[in-house]
Amino acid sequence: MCNAAIEDVEHIFFHCPVAVMAFVASPLGCRTEQYRGLNNKQIIAGWLSEKGNYDGFKMASCMMWALWKHRNEKVFNNKEQSIQSIIKEAQFWFNYTSPILPEEEKHHQSANTKKLANKWTPPETNWTKLNTSAAFKDFQGGWAVVDRNAEFSFIGCGTMALKVLSPIEAETRAVLLAAEFAMMSHL
Ligand SMILES: [Zn+2]
Fold first, then answer.
1. CA 82 to chain centre
2. Using one digit for the tens of pLDDT, what is the confidence trace for 92-119?
3. Among 34, 77, 169, 186, whose CB has the most other CB atoms within 10 angstroms?
4. What number of other Cβ atoms are within 10 A of residue 32's Cβ?
């Protein structure tokens, strides 16, 4: 997806800058650099070993599916999609059970969405919160900014990839991108 590395399974789903940003910006808020050195089976086994209702596993699986579709669109149809559309697609499949949900189940789902976001604290009501993240490898940097509101909703995001000299430069550029994003969004 990034044209910068040989695409093995782990690269496509976890270490490609597109995947890194999509996982960070998703409701999982997951930093995939923690998976370096693990193969895909070990990573998935790790999600499955998390206690509870498997929501993390479910969302992560939907992210992998959306990334795979995004990658194939790019490779075979030369179509580029935004990180935002990858996350939207994953969320669609995460929430997809049947066209009409009983009220009780709807309740259950929104409670789960809040639980999923427990690693991330939302801003106060009527505020918006920007989070940044950067990835660096072999002088290739990628960074992203994510905008979310007090209702845990995804508002928007921006991403960029360039040659940089250090991880610190990538992190700094991520913060600059956040500042530009804030100005462009009139925050
Ligand atoms: Zn890549």
1. 11
2. 988 876 555 556 555 555 665 655 555 6
3. 169
4. 22
